[in-house]
Design goal:
five-stranded antiparallel beta sheet, 5 strands, 101 residues
Length: 101
């Protein structure tokens, strides 16, 4: 799993561009795809309001950096992505608790 400060521009069905920050990327051998989880930059980070996290699959380009985003195709993929996100968030919470000690 890779994560860091990287941005992507996502174009919706209406042609509107939205700058998003990548939360993390990972590969799945089960589905033979790479996935990216991201959220719109400027989303409110209130304690009471959750950020809407988006997910897409992609095939990395030859340089390993860019790729065409594709929609998630089935419930099995969504379940795997949700599990990866929960693991990521648990790890992030653990790191924050360690930093506060």
């Amino acid at each position: 799993m890779e994560h860091g400060q990287q941005n992507i521009t996502v174009v919706d069905d209406n042609g509107t561009e939205q700058l998003c920050e990548i939360l993390f990327t990972f590969e799945s051998e089960e589905f033979n795809k790479s996935y990216v989880l991201y959220y719109p930059i400027g989303a409110q980070e209130d304690e009471n309001e959750e950020i809407e996290i988006h997910a897409s699959s992609f095939i990395p380009s030859e340089d390993g950096k860019d790729g065409e985003l594709e929609p998630i195709e089935n419930d099995e993929e969504w379940a795997m992505i949700e599990e990866m996100l929960n693991t990521f968030l648990e790890d992030e919470d653990a790191e924050e608790e360690e930093e506060q000690e």
